[in-house]
Specification:
Blueprint: H1 2-26, E1 31-36, E2 42-47, H2 53-75, H3 80-113, H4 122-143, H5 164-192, H6 197-227
Antiparallel strand pairs: 1-2
Length: 228
């Protein structure tokens, strides 16, 4: 299963480039809609070869992740089983992100070729994107408490790294914060139905994580004083 995730990440990194090549050389006209206004109307047209930009970014992210993974594995001072567990968790997160990028790439190719598909559907697009991001936050929030102290993933503070218990307390609370932020992101997308949901997402994420971090610090500090 672990190897399957890595293979899938590679495939999801390459697939957008393949799909884009097929679209560019066989389907798309020479000039395509390259940018859309907030109301879904094209406000800039450009060469169809601009379609390769986003797939190149996706492929670059996949390659960078595997470089990071290799570096993290070599530089980790944790035991192998703990390192593998944490890397497996990151593999799952990256895999989900790559699935989102692939879906977005297909959508962009569709609207480049037929800009009319954007008309009257802009609000629904924002709802879908905010829901996907919110669900990803909720997933990450559930993953955080399952990680173990390590050098590259999780909420790493000096006071959360000194024991497994303190690590769990901090990452459990920050995990709850991520879940709450994810719920707020989904609700914001459903209510505002435009790009301003990003503002609510950022505010909720910063607010909940700040409160969770401070709360964790206070609990751990109090526990240490009681043990003295």
């Amino acid at each position: 299963m672990k190897k399957f995730k890595r293979i899938l990440i590679i495939l999801l990194g390459v697939l957008p480039m393949v799909c884009t090549a097929v679209a560019v050389f066989f389907i798309l006209p020479d000039t395509v809609a390259a940018h859309f206004g907030i109301n879904g109307t094209p406000d800039r047209y450009g060469s169809k070869y601009e379609a390769f930009i986003f797939p190149a970014v996706i492929l670059g992210i996949a390659l960078f992740y595997f470089l990071f993974r290799k570096f993290a594995k070599r530089s980790s001072t944790d035991d192998n089983s703990r390192t593998e567990r944490n890397l497996d968790i990151i593999d799952t997160v990256i895999m989900m992100i790559m699935v989102l990028f692939n879906a977005l790439c297909v959508f962009l190719l569709t609207v480049m070729g037929d800009p009319s598909t954007m008309k009257d559907k802009v609000s629904m697009i924002f709802v879908i994107i905010s829901t996907i991001i919110g669900v990803l936050f909720i997933f990450l929030g559930n993953i955080l408490p399952k990680t173990k102290p390590n050098s590259f993933v999780g909420v790493r503070m000096s006071w959360s790294m000194d024991s497994d218990k303190h690590w769990y307390i901090t990452n459990r609370n920050c995990g709850i914060a991520m879940v709450l932020s994810g719920i707020c992101t989904v609700i914001a997308g459903l209510i505002v139905r435009n790009g301003t949901y990003i503002i609510y997402m950022i505010i909720s994420l910063i607010l909940f994580l700040t409160v969770a971090t401070i709360y964790s610090y206070v609990i751990i500090k109090r526990e240490k004083k009681q043990q003295e």
